[in-house]
């Protein structure tokens, strides 16, 4: 590993200390199942991510044979542009993920959604209320269902007013196993709200929160990058085509990208080399009140 990589890792760890989960954030996340961080991406970073998004979006449209008016939900975008990589451990979001989930984590899923503006309005019945992870919700027996994972959504377009394809959610619904009729997921359940997020803002949300995309009536597309974090023993939800990043990544980033130096057993019974994030967290313990309020696991 190069000195430059090590320096970068130490610099990132220092930045993480300024962005740990606060008691108020932990309380909000534990209560609502999501929280909003406004304008945490510098404009230049947001511009770069949007440029990368547009490049990948154009390539994907051509491959699918669809137009700019078609909605696209594309998995496994992470490896398609270097600018996406820094968001994996972005200082404004990543330490909060760690304080909520703990150290035995990975990126298990990424997807990008382009929701084109409809101009005159979107067709009815386009919402789809759901909890993430599909079969986990049918096959895990506990109540409420376990968290297992969460997502960080980076907003590259302005959704600070309603009607722009906003993230829709029902606050507190992460503790409810049933909320909507499976056959009528286009209908808004009681308590549904459109979450308002400016360009460059972030939403962190528990996978169990009942949520949906909403209709975009604006004259521009809504663009969002979703990064899914889970425990390392959960199989990735997409192909995670990221091997070309590993050689130039520091140990913590390699952990997040799915490596396990001790082999498959290291995902369920990790050795120190499998989870370098644990060393950082032990040297910089979380605020216990904040972690408890968020429903974090025991260290």
Radius of gyration, in Å, reads: 19 Å
Q: Give the CA-CA distance, first to last residue.
A: 29 Å
Shape: globular
Assembly form of the protein: single chain
* Number of H/I helices: 8
Helical percentage: 25-40%
Number of strands: 9
Proportion of residues in extended strands:
15-25%
Main sheet makeup? 6 strands, antiparallel
Characterise this structure.
By secondary structure, the protein is α+β, with helices and mostly antiparallel strands. Helices cover 27% and strands 17% of the residues. It has helices spanning 3-17, 23-32, 43-64, 94-101, 135-139, 251-256, 276-283, 288-294, and strands at residues 34-37, 72-75, 105-115, 149-155, 167-169, 193-195, 202-206, 211-213, 222-231. The strands form 2 sheets. A 6-stranded antiparallel sheet has the order 1-7-4-9-3-2. A 3-stranded antiparallel sheet has the order 6-5-8, with no helix packed on it. Helix 2 runs parallel beside helix 8. It starts with a helix and ends in a 5-residue tail after the last helix.
What are the key terms here?
disordered N terminus; alpha+beta; 8 helices; three-stranded antiparallel sheet
Question: Quick recap of the structure?
Answer:
The protein is of the alpha+beta class and 299 residues long. Helices cover 27% and strands 17% of the residues. The N terminus is likely disordered.
Draw up the topology in text.
Layout: H1 3-17, H2 23-32, E1 34-37, H3 43-64, E2 72-75, H4 94-101, E3 105-115, H5 135-139, E4 149-155, E5 167-169, E6 193-195, E7 202-206, E8 211-213, E9 222-231, H6 251-256, H7 276-283, H8 288-294
Antiparallel strand pairs: 1-7, 2-3, 3-9, 4-7, 4-9, 5-6, 5-8
Helix pairs in contact: 2-8
